[in-house]
Amino acid sequence: MARSRTVRPENGAGAAGSKATRYLCAGVYLDRDFREMVIRRVYNDSKHMVAPSYGFDLVPVVMHAWRAWRLETLKSVLVLVVLLGGFVRAPAATVAATAFFGLCWSVAVAVRSALVALPLKAKERTDRFLRRARWHSQSNDLAEHLRSLKLACIGSGALVVAVPVISGVARVPLSQLLQQTAITGMLVVFIACGCGAAQRRALHQTAKGQLPSPNGRRYRAIDEQQRHPFVIYRRPPKEKPELDQLRDILALDDSHKPFIGAGRLIHRWNPPLNIHLLEIGEGGTADREFDPLPFKAHELVAYLKDEMQRLDGQDDATSLPGFGEIDRIYVAEADVDPERGWLHGKPAEHEINEIIDRPFDRFHHFLEIRTSVSGELVTTVFLRATVKGRALSLDFAACALTRTPDEYHILDEYGEGGAAAVLRAAARALTGLPAETMRAWRLIRVPAVLIGAFRARRTRVLFPKRGVKIGAKLSVREEKRMPWESAQLDRTLISDHVKLIEDRLLKAATDFLHEHKVDISEFEERATSIINTGIMNFGESMSVNNSAVGANAVKLDLPESFGSASVGGQA
Question: What is the dihedral of CA 469, 472, 473, 479, to 10 degrees?
Answer without folding.
Answer: 180
